[in-house]
Amino acid sequence: MGLVAKRVSDPRLLRLIRGFLTSGVLEGGLVGPIDEGTPQGGPLSPLLSNLMLDELDKELERRKHCFVRYADDCNIYVRSVRAGERMTASVERFLVRRLKLKVNMHKSAVAPPHRRKFLGFSFTDEKTPRRRVAPQAVVRFKERVRVLTMRTRGASLAQIAKELSLYLLGWRGYFGFCETPSVLRSLDKWIRRRFRSIAWKQWTRGRTRFAELRRRGVAYDLAAQTAGSAHGPWRISNSPALAIALPNAFLASIGVTCLIPAKTA
Fold it and tell me: What is the pTM of this model?
């Protein structure tokens, strides 16, 4: 509140902010007190974190360090591991003693930029680094897509595509400007394979699968061989027959969103 008061002179606004900080949290139908901080996801959190950590920004600028910060996530760039270790200890002392904040040392580390992530992004380990989607973000993406495309949902391909497209459009809007399009192409290929796997599962029986393959232009022998295969849906989803029966153009027509623009896909 002291830092807020340095910027805000209106006593009514100061009372309102203090009221937010001391109002407690609703959990299980009961309001419980909070001793410090703001509730996770509270509307005041981003504003107050910037007010608090503005002091850190000014200190790093005074020291002429290269750094980037978003809310409470901060990367500071130095030339060596030893310098990084000194910087970590120095910044921790500043945050604890000056700002009375706690540092999560489990999430803090001294490492090359390509081994760390920032807001879902990382860098390639090259002479001229390129911006890439962090591996952890790719893992979370696949986990979410698996939930949205579960083969046991009982929904049609078009319905699943419609629901998934909302997530893919948002994800592409955020990560689409990465400089490693091969990652996006790989994810596109994986998503299309998921849809072919869903279709194979939904066709259920060998006779139905054979009929669907033939109806979609697959040759008689290839359709019979694929329909009679003992392999599971994921293995079959990568087969030539499914590529013919459910081509990329068909998947696009039902709304399967591509993660990269068509001109670069």
Answer: 0.77
> 24 Cβ partners below 8 Å, 6+ apart?
31, 32, 33, 34
Cα separation, 114 vs 126, in Å, equals: 9
- Per-residue model confidence as pLDDT tens digits over 134-176: 999 999 999 999 999 887 777 889 999 999 999 999 999 999 8
Query: Are 162 and 255 within 8 A, CB to CB?
Result: yes
CA distance 218 to 224: 9
Backbone angles phi, psi at 67, to 5 degrees: -155, 165
Taking CA atoms, 84 is separated from 56, 62, 63, in Å, by 16, 17, 14
CA gap 206, 241 in Å, rounded = 14
pLDDT digits (tens, 9 = 90+) for 29-72: 777 776 666 766 777 888 888 888 998 999 999 999 999 998 88
How far, in Å, CA of 122 to CA of 111, rounded? 12
- Spatial separation of the C-alpha atoms in residues 84 and 66, rounded to whole Å: 12
